[in-house]
Protein 1
Amino acid sequence: MNTTPELVTLHVWRVPRAALGQALGRMARHPGRLRRTPGVRFGKLLGTGTGTGFGPGDADLTRWAALVVWDSPAAAAGFDASPVGRSWARIARSSARLELRPVTSRGEWSGRRPFGDPAGGRVDGPVLALTRARLRPRRALTFWKAVPPVAAALHAAPGLLARFGVGEAPLGWQGTVSVWRDPTDLVAFAYRHPEHRAAITRTPTEGWYAEELFARFEVRAVVGDRSALGWVADGDPQP
C-alpha cells in the first residue's frame, strides 16, 4: 500500500539570541508534543546551520525548524493553533512555512519511510531537496572535512533559492534543505557538478552513514517571511 502523504510542511522560526535558552528548552520538551499533535504522522524538530561546513561550529542558533508529515491538509491547517506552534510563535521574530508534495524519496529516517513511495510526476516550478543522514561516529570527522567544497559549490549554484543545514541535535546537523527554481537546476547541480559528483562517489566507499534519506518535493506554497529561510531570489510560488 502506498502511504505517500498529500502534504508535508516545513516550519522555520527565527529567534533573537536572547531567546536561545527558551529555544533549547522547546527542543528538549516539544518532540513528543509534536508527534502527539492531532493529524501528525511523522514530525521532527530540527536545529539548523549555515550550510557552509556542517561541523558543530557552523550551527545557527537563531533559526530552528520543524518538518511535519500530515494525515490531511485540514489537520495541517491547525498547526499554528497547536501547543507547539503557539509556543514557537511566542519567541519568533520571523517565521515561514513551506507546503510540500513528495515527488521522490529513498531511504529511511529513524527506521521509517515518512514520505512513503511517491509516484513522481512533473514539476514545473520550485522544488525542495532534503538530505538527511545519521553519521557513523567514527566517520564524522572525515565527512565534515569532505563537505566544504560541496557547500561552496552549492552556494554559487544557478537557480538556488535557499539552503541551510538541518539536524535533530540542537548543536549539529547531518542534512541539508535546499530550494531550487525548478527541477532542471537541481538536477544540474546534483548530477553534473564535479564536487557534488565526487562526494556521491565517495559515499559508499567511505561508509559515512548509518542511515540516510534523500527526498524531493514540489513546493506548493511559501507562507510568511521568506527571510527566515535565507531566501536569495524571487520568482517562486505565492501563498
Protein 2
Amino acid sequence: MSDSKTILIAEDSSVILNLTKKILELQKYRIVSAKNGGEVVKQLEAQPIDCILLDINIPIKDGMTVAREIRQHDTESIRKVPIIAITGNANNYSMDDFREAGITDYLPKPLDFDALVRTVKQHIG
C-alpha cells in the first residue's frame, strides 16, 4: 500500500524524531530526516519526497520560511509536496498564517500519534 511513500521529518528534537520515525515506519513509510531548516530543501532536491513533517521551531531556518521556499521552488514536484507543520506554538499562528506560508495541515505538540498517522494517510495514502 504505502511501501514506496517517503516522508521527510524535519525536527531538531531527537526524541520526537525517533518516536515519529518508528511510528511511521510501522505504517511502512520510508523515513528521511533533516535536523534543521537548511537541510530540508537539499533533501527534497536529492530524492523524491511524498510528504514533509516540518517542525516550525527548527534551527537555521524556521519552518514558516522553509515552507515558503518550498512553495517557490523551481521544480513543480517539490512545490506540490504536502507540508504538515508540527508545532508546540500553534497558538502563535492561525490556519491562515500556515496557509499563507504554503502549509497543507498542522499537528500540535505534544504529538498525538494516532492523529499523526491519520493526517499523513489523509495527504499521501
Protein 3
Amino acid sequence: MPKGMASVTTFSLMLQFLFFILCSSFGQLSLAFTSQEYHEALEKSILFFEGQRSGKLPSNQQQTWRGDSGLSDGSSYHVDLVGGYYDAGDNVKFGLPMAFTTTLLAWSVIEFGSSMQDQLENARAAIRWSTDYLLKAATTTPDTLYVQVGEPNMDHRCWERAEDMDTPRNVYKVSATNPGSDVAAETAAALAASSIVFRDSDPSYSSKLLQAAIKVFNFADRYRGSYSDSLNSVVCPFYCSYSGYHDELLWGASWIYKASGINTYIQYIQSNGHILGADDDGYTFSWDDKRPGTKILLSKEFLEENSEEFQLYKAHADNYICSLMSGTPGFQAQYTRGGLLYKGSESNLQYVTSTSFLLLTYAKYLNTNGGNVVRCGTSAVTGENLVTLAKAQVDYILGNNPTKMSYMVGFGERYPKHIHHRGSSLPSIHAHTQHISCNDGFQFFHSASPNPNILVGAIVGGPDNNDNFSDDRHNYQQSEPATYINAPFVGALAYFSANPPTTY
C-alpha cells in the first residue's frame, strides 16, 4: 500500500461513518435531492436577487410583486446612483456587502457556470444589475467611491416598502481625505471578477469593468484607511469593517491579477502579502473577512504551476480546510447535533453558504491538478471529502435537517413564511397602491399572518446552535435574508445540479 494511503482510507471511512450516523438521525439513508431539485433551487437562488433590486425594474421582472424604487438616488448630490441591490430586509444600499455579493456571484459563475445550463444568463443578469451600479459609484468622481445610499438609522426605524420610502436618501462616499480601502478594494474585486464573467459574452463591457477595477484598486491602495473610521455611525454597527482593510487589499489585487494577468499584481502580492495578512490564518469567510477566500483563490496558482511563491497560500488554505474537518489535528469548527456548521447566532447561514462554496471550489482545484490532497497532521483529506461535507451543508439548508424545514423561501413543502423583510411582509404596491407611511407599516410587521409576497429563493439567517428555528419576523437574526447569504450558494447549487451523488 503506498505511503499515506492508510491515513486517507482511515479518515475517509471515519467521515463516511459520521455522515451515515448523521443521515440516520434524520431517518434518510438515500439520496436526499435529485439533480432536478438542485437545479430548481439554483433557479430560485438567482431569482431571489430580483426581489432585492433597486431602481427601474425591467419588463422581464419575475418577482412581479416588486415595483420601481429609488429612482432619484444620488440626484440631490448631482450623481446618478440609481440601481444596485438592497442588502437584506431593509431599504439601504450598503456598498461593502453589495460588492462582496457581486464578487461571490461572479466567482460562482467562473467556477461552476458551465453547470448552470439555462440559468447562466440569469446569473449574469444578477451580476450585471450590481456592476452597472458599482461602475457609476466608482467612476463618477475622481478619487471618490460612493459607498452607500440611505440613512440607516432612520431607515431602520421605519417599516415601509422600498416603493414608498420617505426616509432620507443620503449619499455617503470615501475619498482621499476620508479613505475606505476595505470597501474600495472589495469593489475592485467585484469589478475584476465580473470582468472575467463577461469576457466572452460582452468583451467591451468586460474591458470597462477591468479598467474600473484597476482604477478603484489604485485609489484603495494609495489612500489607506478603514471606511468604518471615515463613516463611523452610518456603517457601524451595520457593516462595520471589523477585520480592517488589509484582507481586502490582498483580495482585490488577487482578483485583478486573475482577470488581467498583469505581473504587476503578482509583484504587489509578493511585496505586500506579509503585511496584508498572507501569514495569517483566517477561519471565517464573509463580507468582512476575505482571508480564507484569498488563500484558496491563490492556491490555484500553486497547484497549477507548483510555484513556490504561492506555496504559502496553499499551506494556509489547507489550514482552513483542516479547521473544518472533525477528527483532524487542526479541527476547531463547531457543528450542531444536526450537522450544521455554526459560527454565530446572527445570520449563521451566511457562513454556511460561503464555506460550502470554498469547499467545492478547493475540491475542484485539488481534483483538477492531479488529485492533490490536504494534509491535516497524519490525515489526508481528499477532494471527495470536501464535497461530502459541502453536500451535508447544502442539503441541510434545503430541508435535510432536524426541523425538516427548507431555509430557502419557496423551495420544498415547508419553508419560512414570516421572514424579516419589508417588501415581502407589506402588501404589494400593485395590490395596495396607497402610500404606507413609516409607522403605519408596523401593523404588518407585528401581524401573525404569513408574508403576502413570497420572496422566492431567499435564504434566511437560519437555525440556532441547537437546530431550532423561529419563523418570526421579530427574530431578524434567524429570519432575515441577505444577498451575501445567497451569492455563494448559487455556485454550490450549480455544482450539485450537475454532480448529484448517488448515495449517502
